[in-house]
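peroxidase: structure, please.
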Amino acid sequence: MEDLVALSGGHTLGFSHCSSFQNRIHNFNSTHDVDPTLRPAFAASLKSICPIKNKAKNAGTSMDPSSTTFDNTYYRLIIQGQSLFSSDQALLTTPKTKSLVYKFASSKKAFHTAFAESMMKMSSINGGQEVRKDCRFVN
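Here you go.
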């Protein structure tokens, strides 16, 4: 579990297109238009960037306000209901992963250490994996 939570912290970097999170801000389910785990002001901000009839193909937003810095802001945003992806917000749904989110949110050093260890473990997996130059495409 720690590897999953630590490696998810890679979402502290980069940009996400609207198509990757629009299901959380438009027609979420039969009873909620917006994912109720999202902070309302954050959801409104995302809706302004990604309207339901979005015509801008490259519309989207940074993964977090410090998206060019490898830090632990990602975890603090999850706690605040400001994560872009449902998979990120889901880290608060089990006691073990929630505990790790809080641990990494409160200690950049703990996050960096766990991330490095998890990357080392992942690098030793055999089976023809590749590091993608662009996450959306196989090299």
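Notes: The mean pLDDT is 91.
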